Amino acid sequence: MGLLTIGAFAKASRLSPKALRLYDELGLLAPARVDPVTGYRLYAPEQLDQARLVAWPRRLGMPLVRIQHVCTLDAGLAAQEIRAFWAQVEADTAARRDLAAFLIDHLSWKDPAMNLGIRYAALSDTGLIRESNQDTAYAGSRLLAVADGYGNGGAPASAAAVDALKHLEIDSIPAGSLLNVLEDAVDQAKQAVHGIAGTAASPGKAGTTLTAMLWTGSQLALVHIGDSRVYLLRDGELFQITHDHTMVQSMVDEGRLAPEEAASHPQRSLLIRALGQGADATPEMRLHDARREDRYLLCSDGLSTVAPTEDIRRVLSETREPEQAVRELIALANDSGGPDNVSCVVADVVELRQ
Ligand code: MN
User: Quick check: 44 and 5 in contact, CB under 8 A?
Assistant: First the structure.
């Protein structure tokens, strides 16, 4: 079979002639021959497979440079590369979905007639195995936070991240600027942690998770980076409202790992987002309408890794005061061996007396 004109080849490959000319210029798909007189590009029928390998990832929105790389790989590696690209697209979309939900909530909010407030307690414990406590837990009248430091300088890193948010306790937040205030606060926390990581004995290794909630008087705004968690106890039911930013969780999301395998995975604590040098510090942000009798728990993985969710739910349901709840939750982790530092913050949404 002879060579095909660019028009015929475009039709057969489902690429436009314009796209074919671009791919030629980029070295993605060179024509078999260019007519020296007319300059017309001519393609061999055997090039159709190669053209399809360009066309289909293009429909997924894969950038051309990345397709260029895929074209050099054998089928197995090309499949892996496309899988990785798609996982990234889905992660980006999920992050934007959260942001969209945040904005929608923020713009649709109306002040409740009720006068609500929070009652809170925070407690952090070294556990039974570790020599020092690298976690930081904090609860104040507006700010609730848990940070789980890692590496050389993990303790000052988690403390610095939480300290950087404490001005939110007193700052007034102008109406409509909550999202900006939170974003700035996370940025300050990031700078503070980078300052620590830069001076530690092994620079770049220290970092921390950061999971915090800000009480605005009628809502709770959440920022979350890493694998500490927030649970909500509502009407006796327990909901995990954060997503772990771990390698293992992303493998579960992609369907490459069963959730029951995740719990015992040797690399279950490997973070894909954190505050630290070189780490992705994109926060998950969300806004929760305050509802009377809701109880929030912020905890480090020292609790969630060892304590069954049902036990956490039971303690949160059966204890009255937040102080008692945090004490019993820490006892729960230590009764299960206390292999890690453990931090808990419990906050109840209550109706204030006039
Ligand atoms: Mn931990």
Answer: no
| pTM: predicted TM-score of the whole model, two decimal places | 0.74
Distance of CA 184 from the midpoint of ligand 1 (Å): 26
The pairing of beta strand 229-234 with beta strand 33-34: unpaired
Alpha-carbon distance of 69 to 78, in angstroms, equals 9
User: What secondary structure letter does DSSP report for 268?
Assistant: T
Q: Are 309 and 336 in contact (CB under 8 A)?
A: no
Per-residue model confidence as pLDDT tens digits over 50-63:
888 888 888 888 98
- What is the spatial distance between Cα 213 and Cα 108, in angstroms, rounded to a whole number? 20
CA of 131 to the centre of ligand 1 (A): 13
Produce one character per residue of 66-83: b if its CB has 16 or more CB atoms within 10 Å, e if not.
ebeebbeeeeeebeebbe
Contact in structure between 150 and 158 (CB atoms under 8 Å): no
Ion ligand 1 — residues with CB < 5 Å: 148, 300-302, 340
Integer Cα distance of 328 and 59 in angstroms: 53
pLDDT at 201 over 60: no
List, in order, residues 6 or more apart from 115 with CB less than 8 Å away.
Answer: 351, 352, 354
From the CA of 254, how far away is ligand 1's center (Å)?
24
Domains in the chain (CATH in brackets) are 4-72 (1.10.1660.10), 112-351 (3.60.40.10)
